[in-house]
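Milestone 3.1: sequence recovery, worked example.
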């Protein structure tokens, strides 16, 4: 469910008509709904009601400080994967004790930043990282709580580029080697073993891969406790998928996910951390664009928009589907036409959809890409010297620009020309 609905024939974000925002900030732009963010976070939080837990939002999905502050105000922790994300979370007012630091390639500088600023735990992904973290922690005179990320070799049944739990993926330590790595962690100064971390991928639409991975984590918990480790926290990652189409097929709900966690891990008495990102923010955001031209090609018609692959790269990168709808609601039963929906970037890959059935559209019409809140703005770029587009946050009848569109001068003046030129 989201809060982008037609009212009086016009698509609204909560109580704000989208043409009103377009008039104020221009197009294209991202728009997020506070009500949807709130609802989706609470679904996860309530799914684990009665279990000692923390929902840590995976901020790589969308990291604008206004989104972070909204979620932190609801009680969310943050899952960060870089020093920049850590700094961004702290700038948004998130205390260090609610930040989990994940990521396969943390540098010593990033470790130092997190340890000096405070961190709930560091999820360690390799033995070299473990030793580096020990060196940084002892150099600062600190002890850092850690969980080791184990790779359970479970097929997440998702897109190959977002699967992270198979043996061939770069993430984590093979679960078969977990005992020796935990033994090494226990010997190192500045390291406090507190838990186990696992994350098998993103956009999972079936609970079975989670179940298989969590059973392996449960077995490992018993083994490590028998070895003398105080395993009191299980970080289960994120990955629960969202519906990108309006079909009847829907991924499992957070309440079903929570019930499965209780079934597989509830007997262990551990604090549970989960790190949802896409399901919290994906359907809470849309991308609004304007039709520049209608172009007739050889056997196909092109709908050329002012948004491009640099604004929303998911279709080009993952062959991802986003529903595209007109902002002005079409009349019931109106005939639809197949369009190749494309942007103005000088790449054939700048194609959002091929043969997409849409109602008649004209130059200047507004369209909205649904379910664009996750991995949209955060993966955007200035390719073709196109400005990063505004991000808008709506709260009932109010809306605010939470990232402004830079001017050409602001973009170009970031370059520095050497003296000899």
């Amino acid at each position: 469910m989201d809060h982008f609905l037609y009212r009086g024939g016009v698509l609204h974000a909560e109580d704000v008509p989208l043409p009103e925002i377009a008039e104020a900030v221009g197009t294209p732009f991202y728009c997020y709904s506070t009500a949807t963010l709130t609802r989706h976070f609470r679904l996860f939080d309530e799914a684990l009601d009665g279990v000692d837990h923390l929902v840590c939002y995976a901020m790589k999905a969308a990291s604008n400080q206004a989104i972070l502050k909204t979620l932190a105000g609801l009680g969310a922790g943050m899952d960060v994967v870089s020093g920049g994300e850590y700094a961004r979370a702290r700038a948004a007012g998130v205390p260090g004790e609610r930040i989990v630091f994940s990521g396969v390639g943390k540098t010593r500088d990033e470790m130092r930043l997190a340890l000096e600023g405070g961190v709930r735990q560091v999820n360690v992904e390799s033995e070299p990282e473990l030793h580096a973290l020990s060196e940084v922690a002892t150099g600062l005179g600190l002890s850092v709580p850690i969980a080791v990320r184990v790779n359970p070799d479970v097929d997440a049944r998702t897109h190959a580029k977002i699967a992270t739990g198979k043996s061939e993926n770069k993430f984590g330590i093979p679960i078969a080697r977990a005992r020796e790595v935990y033994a090494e962690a226990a010997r190192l100064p500045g390291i406090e073993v507190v838990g186990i971390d696992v994350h098998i991928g993103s956009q999972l639409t079936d609970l079975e891969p989670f179940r298989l991975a969590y059973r392996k984590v449960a077995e490992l918990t018993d083994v490590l406790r028998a070895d003398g480790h105080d395993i009191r926290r299980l970080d289960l990652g994120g990955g629960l998928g969202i519906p990108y189409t309006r079909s009847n097929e829907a991924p499992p709900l957070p309440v079903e996910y929570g019930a499965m966690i209780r079934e597989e891990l509830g007997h262990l008495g551990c604090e549970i951390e989960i790190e949802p990102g896409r399901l919290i923010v994906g359907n809470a955001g849309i991308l609004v664009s304007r039709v520049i031209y209608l172009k007739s090609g050889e056997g196909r018609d092109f709908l050329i928009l002012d948004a491009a692959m640099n604004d929303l790269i998911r279709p080009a990168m993952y062959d991802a589907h986003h529903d595209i709808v007109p902002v002005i609601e079409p009349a019931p039963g109106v005939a639809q036409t197949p369009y190749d929906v494309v942007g103005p970037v000088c790449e054939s890959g700048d194609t959002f959809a091929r043969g997409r059935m849409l109602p008649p559209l004209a130059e200047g019409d507004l369209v909205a890409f649904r379910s664009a809140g996750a991995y949209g703005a955060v993966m955007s770029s200035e390719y073709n010297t196109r400005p990063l587009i505004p991000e808008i946050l709506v709260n009932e009848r109010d809306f605010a620009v939470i990232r402004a569109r830079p001017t050409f001068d602001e973009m170009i003046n970031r370059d520095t020309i050497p003296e000899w030129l």
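Residues 103-274 form a domain with the TIM Barrel fold (CATH 3.20.20.10). The longest helix spans residues 208-226.
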